[in-house]
Amino acid sequence: MAESWAAGPLSCSICLDVLKSPVTLHCGHSYCMDCVNAYWDEEDQSGVYSCPQCRHTFKPRPVLKKSTVLADLMGKMSEPEKPTPHVKDGVGPGDVECDFCTVRKLKAVKSCLVCLASYCATHLQPHYESAAFKRHKLVEVYASIQERICPKHDKLLEVYCRSDGQCICLLCVMDDHKGHDTLSAAAERKERQVRTCIFGPSLCLKVFSQSYSCEIKFKYNFTIGLKVVFY
């Protein structure tokens, strides 16, 4: 790295090398202490001392003091570079990372149920700006978006089967749940919210929690199903 400084502002214009024991003259130019002292030794006979660059003169000969600021800077820049650790900017405990960030992971702000991916604010923009994403469904971020996908058909769980008390996909409606009492998960949730207003707060917590689990979390056992029982 020292070679790259030799022609820069941290170099001495006398020896053309990086500054060693740097000193700064009143005119603002900096040199190695030994270099400028040797230069001025040759001007002792005239009694007038000048800056090798701008020719600003000094009389009497200035007393040189090491520039601690430049010395500290040179010391830090001469240290070997340390590898930059992988930093996850904006991602805290419990946050979901953007699936498309590469170097620095940012916090995801939305999940797409069509792409089956989560996006930060920057990578989400094409969903708002491009017509190609017009039919994509954006939802709040999911830690595991696969929880909303049918493991049998790989489709979105957007239907609620009242007959079996579980969330299913559209292909399930035409397959294992053909002829069952079904409706959209969103409609089921809204209907349960209305019921809570009729049957009181004691039932509210139970049915809303069950509906929320179905539509939002979709955490159920695909083997035995999630049974919803009303008393």
UniProtKB/TrEMBL annotation:
Q: Which InterPro entries does the UniProt entry name for this protein?
A: E3_ubiq-ligase_TRIM/RNF, Znf_B-box, Znf_RING, Znf_RING/FYVE/PHD, Znf_RING_CS
Pfam families of this UniProt entry? Answer: zf-B_box, zf-C3HC4_4
Q: Where is the B box-type domain?
A: 145-185
Q: Where is the RING-type domain?
A: 12-55
- Give the record's keywords alphabetically: Metal-binding, Zinc, Zinc-finger
**Per the record's keyword annotation, is Zinc included, yes or no?**
yes
The entry lists its GO molecular-function terms as:
zinc ion binding
Entry's PANTHER family? B-BOX DOMAIN CONTAINING (PTHR25465), E3 UBIQUITIN_ISG15 LIGASE TRIM25-RELATED (PTHR25465:SF5)
Q: What is this protein called?
A: FinTRIM family, member 67
